[in-house]
């Protein structure tokens, strides 16, 4: 299991990015959460087998059709227990 923190910038709010990411994560068996940030970015914490997490990270660079991703910053994050993949409130 690996654990990653993602910070996604660009046109990623108002384009169903969070719903798309939940769908992608669930299809890969990834657990974690996603939320909008007040600065217009999207933040997520994801965990799962390395191959699946890497596949999700690769997909986040494209996002849903209406998104225009300019950057995805990925960092390691401490292990956390998640069940499923959730949408958290904006911060």
UniProtKB/TrEMBL annotation:
It catalyses: an acyl phosphate + H2O = a carboxylate + phosphate + H(+). Its EC number is 3.6.1.7. Keywords: Hydrolase. The keyword Ion transport does not apply. One of its GO terms (molecular function) is acylphosphatase activity. Belongs to the acylphosphatase family. This is acylphosphatase. It comes from Sphingomonas desiccabilis.
């Amino acid at each position: 299991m690996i654990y990653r923190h993602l910070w996604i910038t660009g046109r990623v709010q108002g384009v169903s990015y969070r719903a798309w990411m939940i769908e992608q994560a669930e299809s890969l068996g990834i657990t974690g959460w996603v939320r909008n940030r007040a600065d217009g970015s999207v933040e997520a914490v994801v965990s799962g087998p390395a191959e699946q997490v890497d596949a999700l990270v690769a997909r986040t660079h494209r996002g849903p059709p209406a998104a225009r991703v300019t950057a995805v910053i990925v960092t390691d994050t401490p292990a956390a227990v998640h069940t499923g993949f959730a949408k958290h409130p904006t911060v």
